[in-house]
Amino acid sequence: MPRPKEGYRCADGVKVNGATDPIGRYGNKEPLIPWARKQGFEQALRGLPKPDHFDRSDLDIGTVVHDMAEQHLRGQDATTIAACAANKLKDPRHLATASHSFEAFKAWAASVQLEVVALEPSLVSERYRYGGTLDIVARVTVRLRGKVRRLLVIIDIKPSRSGNVYAEHLLQLAAYRQLWEENGGQKIQGFFVVVCPKDGSPAKPFFYEQLREQFRLFLLYRDAYDIDKAISAPAALAGVPIAPPPAARPPKPKRDVLNLNGRARHARFLQERAKLNPSIFTTYDLRISANFQPAAGSHPVAGALPGGPTTDRTAGPGAARAIPLEPPEAKPVAAPNQQLPPQGAVKIHGADGSGGEPGSAGKTLPGDLSIPEFLRRANGPNLKSDGWTSFNEASK
Question: N or C: which end of the chain has fewer CB within 10 A?
Answer without folding.
Answer: C
